[in-house]
Structure formats: structure tokens, C-alpha cells
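Hey everyone, long-time lurker, first post.

I ran two proteins through the pipeline my lab uses and got sequence/structure pairs for each. Pasting them in order. The first:
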Amino acid sequence: MSQKDVLRAEAVRNRERIDPASEDPDAIVDLFLTHVKPAHDQIIALYWPKGREFDPYALLERLLRDGFVCSLPVVKKETRVLSFARWDETIPLAEGPFGVMQPAAEEPDSLVEPDILCVPFLAFDRRGQRLGYGGGYYDATIRALRDKKELVAVGLGYAQQAVLFNLPREDHDEMLDWVVTPQGVHRFAP
């Protein structure tokens, strides 16, 4: 078992013990809008939570209400690079690969490239390194988008998912620009 696998197992156990109400998850909305400061011409990608992942629905709901274009990831097994489909409450969701909920009808004209990509994590460190599930989907997606355009990668989670040591980093790992938790904001980009 690799060091990352050991850390991942411990991070999952830690997350299972977090009581979402202990951090006021809705507080993330104002922190995100005040610090990340999305522009109305930017496309924002969020995610539908799986299991005990931080639930960004309050943020998604507010962004949609304020007129932002939002999208959700679409997983395709033949590639690690996620696609993103425009989404609002009128578009039904269906279970995709790995049990992840995603837009049910993926029309070619609904596909977008986000400018701000919100990502879940199991843990994050003070450098902006995130520990994910190990599939590499978000790292590959962040790299692919950064190769095409300016992208802001924002981790969303609980403050209790922070670690006080540096997480191991491999060549394929992509750093986050921000982490926003209900307890505060961490900026890693200059």
C-alpha cells in the first residue's frame, strides 16, 4: 500500500466523522463570492456530491439565482478528462459511472469549458495540494483545461479536512488555486 493510499484511507475515516452542521456549510456561499469573485461571463463547474463529500448545492443554487452559467462534470470511462454540461434545476440528473450523478441528457450544445472549476477532496494541505480518491480525473481535467485557457481551480470542503503536513505530490498532481471551507478561505495562487 502506497503512502497516498494510507493517507487516503485515513482521510476517508476523518471525513466520515465530520458533522456537516458543525461548520455551517451555507457559509461557503458568501466566502466564495467575496474572495473568488466570479465574473458573470465566466462558466463555473461544480459537482454533485457522492457519499460524504462536501455538498456545494447552496453555492450552486445561489450562483444560478444570480444568473451565472453553471455546469456539472460528465464522466466518460474512456478518458480521465471530464466533460462539463451546462446545468440548472430544470435538467434531470442520472447516475453515471462510479455512481456519480450527472446531467442526464448530454447534448453537444450543452457542453461547456469552465473558467472556474470547483473540486471535492479528501484532504488538503497549506500549499494547495489536494488528496482525491486516486482516479486522477480531476488532475487530468485541470491539466487539460489549463493547457487551453486560464483556469481557476477551487477546492470545496470542510476546514476539518486540512492537514498540518505536506501531502505527497506526484508529477501528475495539479495544485489548487483556492480552497474554500465554511470556516475560511485559503489562496495559493499569486
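...and the second, right after it:
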Amino acid sequence: MDAKALAQGIQAGRLDDATLRAGFTDLHPNLDAHEALVAADRCYFCHDAPCITACPTDIDIPLFIRQIATGTPEAAAKTILDQNILGGMCARVCPTETLCEQACVREAAEGKPVQIGRLQRFATDTLMVAGVHPFDRAATTGKKVAVVGAGPAGLACAHRLAMKGHDVVMYDAREKAGGLNEFGIAAYKSTEEFAAREVAWLLQIGGITVETGMVLGRDVTLANLRDGFDAVFLAIGLGGVNALAVDGEDKDGVVDAVDFIADLRQADDLSALPVGRDVVVIGGGMTAVDAAVQSKLLGALNVSIVYRRGQDRMNASVYEQDLAASKGVRIITNASPVAVHGTDEVCEIEFEYTDDNLQPTGQTFRLVADHVMKAIGQTLSGDDLPELRGRKIAVTGAGRTSVSGVWAGGDCAAGGDDLTVTAVAEGRDAAEDIHAMLTT
């Protein structure tokens, strides 16, 4: 951060170390053994459990909760990981309140669901702490698969393929594996370097080589990968960020929220991270909430989320919205940015109120801002790609693209809902389809 920006108000070290540490502690600490037994005892173990249907990875939730209730959390973890090899991270970041827990019979009857997410974390953490990897690699098939992107979809695909005996080489543009789990979620959701530890645990299956700093189209090409491997799985995520497309967007102090979160996740010293006094985050999804809440936890005085639609249409769940409000974040809805004001640095951002159809009303207002973060969605970047549908890679079935021998999944593929758990399911299912192709 340059001196001019620091003078403007984007500064580091506004809070003492103890306050910073307290703000970034684990949002939902793990249950202890007694708490897990009490929580598991609330499950009805439904035969036609709606929670399973609501889970994108189809985990047998009543079974794993019963296994916890009978004192075998390691077996519960195996049940979870059979379907979702990143079950530990998903237990931390999944919007369970709108998926399995919303579908829970207890939620319908009492308004208080079984704590499925926290029970899943208890089981998977128990297994990982024990250092156990519950899967064995099959005999080597001699087949090689390239996986481009070491995020949730890529990791899930690579693990399933390796488990079936195929050799996998993973390429990732970043300096370390993990994708959004490592770089893109709030630090208080994944503490103590859990994302990196989960990747290391996953790689214990063997047969997976990870090469970082490798960008598709620059360091490796799709044509070369097709020539050198028996199959290719693209899990490159969304590398670009949508622009505001308003005057003044290029002023100092206007940044991408995903970059802010990534810098925070990789920081060794939270007190060295600069943040504005008056922060405005534009967007209505999880990224907007993560950026806003963490700005407040870093010492920002005033933090606002501004979203162009109504609050009921925000992609961030009601739970996430309530979390933001509890940290002092103001949420303003039905407003779109029209201009960023200031000489060289942002000092105000102007908005216009919109109606429910996103039509401008003619009424405008300004917010004081020295730090503006864009969280209005990400875009697919790169030219060396199969056919697109809209702005993502077109897929059919279990991730098959328009190019023979090439699959795609996760955020880069059309049709998903950009959730970690969905990416895992798509990577797993693509691996099964690739395996079927390689062995027939």
C-alpha cells in the first residue's frame, strides 16, 4: 500500500493483537465428545431422510450421526468421506442452514434442526487428528489423468481417480493447492491452516503429483495435456472479477474483494493488514459478507454492504446476513453504484436507488469511503478452453465438455451453484465417469 493510500485512511494496526486474535478465532469451535453425543441424540434417523436429498454430495447423514451416537466417530467420518472427501472443510463452510439443516425434520417441527454441520466436523476432525486416511489405493492402472485446478472440484476428482489406481498430475496457478478453500473464504471459518492440512491429508492416498504456479494457456495448454494424458479434468474456477463499469472505478482504494480475502488468508500478521476507516463492499453474496465482516474485525470504523436487489434476494444466506449485522455491518439494498468520487483516491461512492426490477428511481445518495471492495461476481478467464455456455464451460452428464477426453467441474462449469460442496460432488462424479471411460 503506497504512502498516499495510507494517508487517505487505509491503514494497518488499528487494533491490538489480543483483539485481533479474538475476532478471528474459530466461528464454530468443534464439539467435544459429550456435546457430540447430545447433539446426535436429537436425530430421528429418518428412513427417507430429507437431509440426504438436500446434501449435494448425498452423504448418508442419519447413518453417520448414528455412528457418532454409538461412539464410533471414525466410522462416521468414513461414511462422510466416502461421498465427500473434503467433508472437513464443507462442515465449516457449507450453508447447512439452507441445505441439510433446513430440510431436517426437527427444523420443520421445532425450528431447531440437528446440528448436522457441527457433527460432521466432529467426525472428520476426529479422524484427521488421529492421522488416519481410511482409503486404500487400488493397483496402478497405468493410466494418467491431468487435473487443472487444485481447488475443491480438482481435489475431489484427483482423490477419486487416484483411489481407483490412476496416476494424477494436478496443475494449479497459485503457489499452493486448495483453491477457494485456501484463498477465498473468511479466516474465522477455517483456522489453524485447516485447508492446507486437509490437502496434505487427502494426498496421503498416493498417486497424485501437484505442480503449482502453472497457468492453463501459459505454462500448459489443453492440446498438450490431451496429447500427454489419457484424460483431462478442468477445475480452474473463476479467475476474473466483474467490473463496476462506473466512472472512477480505477481510483486508489477500489479493490477486488477476492484479493482482499486472499491477502488476509495468507497473512502471517493480521496487524499488518491495511483496511479503510470507511469501507463499502458492493455485492450480496458470501464474498461480500466475508469481506465486510473481516474489515470490521480488522478495525474499520464504518462498514456497509450495498446490494442492487432486495435483501431477500441476496445470495448470502440469512445466517450470513445476521452474522454481518451482529458485527456492526450495515446492509443497504436496492441500490446500484453510479460513480466513484475523489481526486486520485476514492473519498465517496455514489449510488442510485433501484426498484424491484433493477430500474433506476432517480434518487441518489453518497457514502463516505476510503476503501471500496467489489464483490459482484467472478468471471471465467482464459482462451484455451472448450465450448462455453454463456460465460462458463458447457458440460453434459458428469462434466463432459465439447472436447473429447476433457471434463470440467466446479465454478468454471455451467450449471452449478458455486458452492464448495457442489464442486466436490462434480469433481467426484467426473472422476467416476473418467474411470468408466478409461476401463472400458
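Reply from user beta_strand_b:
Welcome! Quick read of the second one: The domain at 33-129 is CATH 1.10.1060.10 (Fumarate Reductase Iron-sulfur Protein; Chain B, domain 2). The chain is about 35% helix and 15% strand.
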